[in-house]
Amino acid sequence: MSSHAATTQVKANWGGGGVSPLGASYGKLYMWFFLVSDAFTFSGLLTAYGFMRHKYTDFWPNPGHVFHHFPFYEGSIPLAYVGLMTFILIMSSVTMVLAVEAGHRNKKNEVAKWMLLTIIGGLMFVGSQAWEWYNFISGTAEGAVRNILVDGVWQDKLIHGANLQYNEYGLPVFGDFFFFITGFHGFHVFSGVVINFIIYVNVVKGTYEKRGHYEMVEKVGLYWHFVDLVWVFVFTFFYLL
Amino acid sequence: MEFNDGYPSYETMAIHDEEHGKHVRKVIWKVFWIMLGVTLVELLVGFKAESWGLGKVFLQFFFIGLTIVKAAYIVLSFMHLGDEVKALKWTLLGPFIVLVLYLIFMVDVGEGNYAKARRYVMDKNVTDAPHHAPAGNNEGASEHH
After folding, report:
1. C-alpha to C-alpha distance for A186 and A89, rounded to whole angstroms
2. What residue spans define the domains of chain B?
């Protein structure tokens, strides 16, 4: 151990030896391990989706026919809005990594600027997802006939839209997975926006400037990129395949 | 920080100067354009798959392959895992590679095929096949299989 006259207590690195195994700080390692565990959670959901999709493949609705709305446009463009949502999220990931890079140069104002853009991108994504849910739940004008339980009697009724019991697009399990997977992911995006906002306030206040490094921005950036990563997989498995 | 005991301070080790910053930013934008391009290709193929008559299996390989490409760029470049030490990279990616291999074998070779077999029984309306509206709804879903 080092010997020194000054009594300055240095923040001890965990492990006692002062050298972190795997070559990263404690906070960053924690974030990475948490992300791996969260990734396994989403893998479980997507695998379950895959099995159901595979089993009922003859009855599964075509996502291009279900998700064809676009704001302020009366016609139908399959998957266009979902594509736009993907672009917004990837863009917000880019602004996040630019914030991290500005943090590596200790430029407070640049970090703040890029983080604000990331937060705005995240809010746009959550809003878009909410709009998609609204369209999914309200359904189309034609609707479909489903055999549903009404007052204890199973009968064929014309229904519109979707809920967890039945939907006009196809099997009930299609709606269930839509709500659960996009809901879980949307919740992660929302919590990411909240966390980003807290860190943004700290950046503006100068907390990290005083600390001497912007590693908190990097850690929060890891979480945000993870959210984008999950969306890339959800987008592929749910909307494309 | 005046105090120096020889141990690495991982937080401040990441700091770099303007020159290096410019280079890093160029890489970031390059990856962005790659991601945008790949997404557009995926959307185009997804849009046109029916009219181009692409097979289901081809589509699966195509989309999953491109998704893994995008995921690799996000993890290695945006999350800077590519810059970390090898031990950390493998600690994080190792379990995932094992999982993916397991899923591939499970779905295509093992368990998934039990589900496939049931489809023959469903025609007889015997099992938990859902009641669904007369044909017209799902014509998009059932391609030749």
Report:
1. 12
2. 1-79, 85-145
Q: Do B96 and A57 touch (CB under 8 A)?
A: no
| Contact (Cβ atoms closer than 8 angstroms) between residue B34 and residue B73 | yes
Domain boundaries, chain A: 25-240
**Quick one: closest CA in B to A234, which residue?**
B67
CATH homologous superfamily, domain A25-240: Cytochrome c oxidase, subunit III, four-helix bundle (1.20.120.80)
pLDDT band, residue A134 (cuts 50/70/90): very high
Helix (H, G, I), strand (E, B) or coil at A74: coil
Q: How far apart are CA A12 and CA A221, in angstroms?
A: 24
Phi, psi for A151 (deg, rounded to 5)? 55, 45
Contact B71, B79 (CB under 8 A): no
Q: What is the reported pLDDT for A26?
A: 86
Residue B47 CA, distance from chain mean position: 19
Q: Is B65 on the interface with A (CB under 8 A)?
A: no
Rounded to two decimals, what is the model's pTM?
0.83
**B136, closest residue in chain A (CA to CA):** A144
pLDDT band per the 50, 70, 90 thresholds, residue A14: low
In whole angstroms, what is the distance from residue A101 CA to residue B20 CA? 10
Residue whose structure tokens are 């159901």: A52
**Residues of chain B predicted below pLDDT 50:** 117, 121, 125-129, 133-145
CB-based contacts of A152, cutoff 8 Å, min separation 6: none
Residue in B7, B28, B95 closest to A94 by CB: B28
Q: Where is average pLDDT lowest: A38-52, A73-87, A147-161, B131-145?
A: B131-145
Residues B78-96 pLDDT 10s? 999 998 889 999 999 999 8
Can you tell me the distance from the alpha carbon of B86 to that of A182, in angstroms, rounded to the nearest whole number? 33
CA distance A146 to chain B (A): 6
pLDDT tens per residue, range B13-28? 888 888 888 999 999 9
The C-alpha atoms of residue A18 and residue A1 are separated, in whole angstroms, by: 9
